[in-house]
Amino acid sequence: MSDFDIQLLAIATGGVVLLVALIVSRIRMHPLLALLLTSVLVGLLAGLPVDKVVKSIEVGAGNTLGAVGLVVALGAMLGKIMAENGVTDGIADTIIKRTSVPMLPWAMSGVAFVVGIPMFFEVGLVVLLPLVFTVARKLEQGSAIRGSAYVYVGVPVIAALASMHGMVPPHPGPLTAIASLKTNVGATMLYGFVAAIPAIVLGGPVYGAFIAPRLAVKPDASLVGQFSRPEVAVPIGGQWRPGLGTSVLVALLPAILMLFNAVAELALPPSSPVTRLAAFVGDPVIAMLFGVVFAASVFVYTKSGDAESLRDAMSASLKPIANVLVIIAGGGAFQHVLTDAKVGDAIVHLSQQFAFSPLILGWLISMLLSVSTGSATVGIVGAAGLLAPLAMAEPVNTPLLALAIGCGSLFFNYANHAGFWLVKESFGMTMGEATKTISVIQSIVSVVGLVMVLLMNLLPPLV
Questions:
Q1: What is the pLDDT of residues 105-154, one digit of tens each?
Q2: pLDDT tens digits, 259-314
Q3: Do 343 and 8 form a contact (C-beta atoms < 8 A)?
Q4: Residue 181 contacts residue 278 (beta carbons within 8 Å)
Q5: How sure is the predictor about 229, in pLDDT bands with cuts at 50, 70 and 90?
Q6: Which of 89-93, 312-316, 442-446 has the lowest mean pLDDT?
Q7: By C-alpha distance, which of 302, 298, 325 is closest to 75?
Q8: How many Å is the Cα radius of gyration of the chain?
Q9: Distance of alpha carbon 72 from alpha carbon 227, whole angstroms
Q10: Residue 359 burial by Cβ neighbours in a 10 Å radius (0-12, 13-18, 19+)
């Protein structure tokens, strides 16, 4: 490991410390300004040319908005339509009536587990936020729990979505590791499901019951209001009210389309017309677009509802999330600068100094890369690429190695991750509250996943 590698790691660490200080100190700088300023300083100190720093910030912010921003915006529109027509309220009533308060986190984990099979973490959270806010609002009104009802309901959802995102194909992280290691998709998926269950339990309902009484988190009233309306006097679709089946279909159509894509990828050859169709309709942006159009059609266009009110409602839905979108873009810029500065290479060189089993080494490299660069994908690609020759040269359970790498990429999602800012701003959290929730949750999920990998490695391999 060279002196330059040590210098890069020190710059990256200092950048994260500076970012947190700018936001939480008496300066109270807006997170977008803090992220952009830190990105510029880190890029220049790391030796990037001035024009490269600017380009890296622009590309990072643009890529993140393209991948996450459109989905968040469409999700806000879908959530507004469902709230205006009593969809989320009806689903929430059904869940609450059929589930006791102590069992609600388990029910929400189950919903997120199913939704999380085909969906990215950020996409799944956007889809489920209306339900989370509605259930939490009803709990809060009933004074059924101590502390934050939004944390009590939200933590299990975050844990389930994170576990599925990092452990189970067809999510891009596990699939990338599978491709690099040339291992079996089915075995990795089975191992992933087994590892995800205890990770969800410990990181979700168990940790949620511990942390919820200790926090007073409550999202911005305008955001809660657009996703969760206590009363819907005159729905924008008229007096017609949807049944539970219609409500569930509207809420989960994007997830169904993405699941269709996931199944097609696993069951059909890439050249199949069905696979190509599934890839199109199952893309997160297209799936969310279809979801919004379907909801608008069900509630307004086919019911001769008020189209003008619908358009006004969708326009209004974007105002509360404007702050969320720009901060997510800033997080993407910071992550891209760290990647362009080759901080990931320094982490790889550092990891080569240690002698661990391939499973632990895969988890460790992926974890360090993800934490330092703010990108789980960088962590997975770097770890899988580094360990691919080792996996071919030594007897190792490659499906479990792919799973270990995916688990490592989940550890301590923090200020250089777009998902951190999505959770923080959506729930109206401080930096400390966000750290106690999403950062700790993902760390629990990551560590439990590694423990499960090591335990399953004691059993005969599946392939």
A1: 999 999 899 888 767 788 789 888 989 999 998 888 876 688 999 999 99
A2: 888 788 778 898 999 999 999 998 888 998 999 999 999 988 887 778 888 899 88
A3: yes
A4: no
A5: low
A6: 89-93
A7: 325
A8: 22
A9: 13
A10: buried
Angle at 172 between CA 52 and CA 366, to 5 degrees: 70
3 CB-near residues (< 8 Å, 6+ apart): none
Q: Are 39 and 334 in contact (CB under 8 A)?
A: yes
The angle formed by the CA atoms of residues 166, 421 and 320, to the nearest 5 degrees, is: 125
- Looking at every residue in the chain, the average pLDDT score rounds to 87
Q: What gap in Å lies between CA 222 and CA 208, rounded to an integer?
A: 25
Residue with tokens 């307004």: 300
Give the contacts of 360 (CB within 8 A, at least 6 positions apart): 404, 450, 454
Could you tell me how many helices (H) and strands (E) the chain has, helices first? 24, 0
422 within 8 A of 75, measured Cβ to Cβ: no
Calpha distance 349→128 (Å, rounded) = 40
Report the C-alpha gap between 105 and 207 in whole angstroms: 10
Please tell me the distance from the alpha carbon of residue 135 to that of residue 91, in angstroms, as a whole number.
9
Cis amide prior to 461 (ω within 30 degrees): no
- Two structure tokens written together for 125: 């959270």
Q: Is 242 left (phi over 0), alpha (psi -120 to 50) or beta?
A: beta
| Higher per-residue pLDDT: 32 or 381 | 32
Q: Which two tokens stand for residue 276?
A: 């190509």
The answer to whether the CB of 181 falls within 8 A of the CB of 389 is no
